[in-house]
Amino acid sequence: MSAASNARAALLVGALALGTAAAAAAATAAIAVGMARRVVTPAVRREEDVAILAADVDAGWIRLARTPDTVVAGRYGLWFAGGSGHARVGRVLTMTPTTVTRLLESVQIGRLEDARRGRWGAWYHLVPADLGLDADELDVMTELGPAPAWAVHPATGPSTDWVIQVHGRGVTRSEGLRALPVFRRAGFSSLLISYRNDGLAPPSADRRYALGLEEWRDVESAVAEAMKRGARRIVIMGWSMGGAIALQFLTRSPLARHVIGAVLESPVVDWRTVLRFHAALSGLPRPVGEIALGVLGSAGARPLLGTGAPIDLRELDLVARADELAVPLLLLHSDDDGYVPAEASLALAAARPDIVTLERFAVARHTKLWNVDPVRWEAAIARWLRARGQEDAETLDQRA
């Protein structure tokens, strides 16, 4: 082969290599943008990822595909028929290497006999009446308009102690129903709120999650509403992403001074930890996950994500910002959380042992601590609430 032919061959190989590299870079960027977009886009319909193999409503049993969630002890909800059906599932009856048969306690909505797939969830109750409780339906006036909420009071009537329940990503105010009994026994009125882009409250202009950076304003509106109704001592309870929202409220809102503490169940304390976990779970190389983090914070990527503003993940890292927190926190988290790893909760507890009480479960998955062990879960919250009352009494004594 002549020197000229060798040169042409080398150029061709180089061009192909460059083309391959460019294609790989484009594919990496597309995957990263897709991941970032999913993070901020509310799901229209949740995936039904559990196979329903058989069920006998009359006999009271259901057989499901075995998954890390379906084998855990406790009581759960099972959504089916595209979210239009719901059943309550109880203890494990039998297991095989691929299936689990559980007690079928009841079917609230729909025909379970026709369902082939479902979505395993922590919701056991759908409305306050499921707990035998009356609720006031009210609207919290937010900057975007009226947001529906439930107010549930102790048997003695509205209290001056209130808890604001802030649900997680992709769910609604029903998530906080499990907490009603323990707060009610402690004398608290409960306000279970909706917030922008959750399907109940008015959406933001971009119809995207801000992961806490904007949603905290709706919590602020809820605190103002509670105060208007007589609240004097306020607790915020945040579930999953609701924990991130609560933490942003505590570090941003002037109304946070009226809050005596926060209870955070399986909370997002640092979004970067969560997003890296999900990138690894999806089998993505670490560089792709890091690019996705950068895309979220990029002003230039806003048209690709549909967001109104970049997501500053540094602002959402409350381990790094731990010194800005000023009220007692109760963190409830499970080591085997398969959605929001407990790593950041443990780090926050280590960074601020002066204000953080950590209740650490071993096997309870994500936001399902009550489902696994309601006695322990309620006892942890009740102890923490009693401590807040004692602190208030000591403060009053000091002032006297």
Characterization of this structure:
The chain is an alpha/beta fold. The protein has 10 helices and 14 strands. Strand 4 (85-95) and strand 5 (99-109) form a beta hairpin. It is globular. Mean pLDDT is 92; it is low at 10-17.
Summarize the structure.
The protein has helices at 3-40, 180-185, 216-228, 241-252, 271-281, 286-296, 302-305, 343-351, 369-372, 374-399, and strands at residues 50-56, 61-65, 76-80, 85-95, 99-109, 117-121, 136-142, 145-152, 161-166, 189-193, 233-239, 259-265, 329-334, 356-361.
Task: Show the helix and strand layout.
Elements (H helix, E strand, L loop, with lengths): L2 H38 L9 E7 L4 E5 L10 E5 L4 E11 L3 E11 L7 E5 L14 E7 L2 E8 L8 E6 L13 H6 L3 E5 L22 H13 L4 E7 L1 H12 L6 E7 L5 H11 L4 H11 L5 H4 L23 E6 L8 H9 L4 E6 L7 H4 L1 H26 L1
- Overall mean pLDDT stands at 92
Main beta-sheet strand count, sense and barrel state: 8 strands, mixed
Provide the structure class.
alpha/beta
Helix percentage range? 25-40%
Distance between the termini: 100 Å
- The proportion of residues in beta strands is 15-25%
Keywords, separated by commas or semicolons:
single chain, 400 residues, alpha/beta, 8-stranded mixed sheet, 6-stranded antiparallel β-barrel, 10 helices
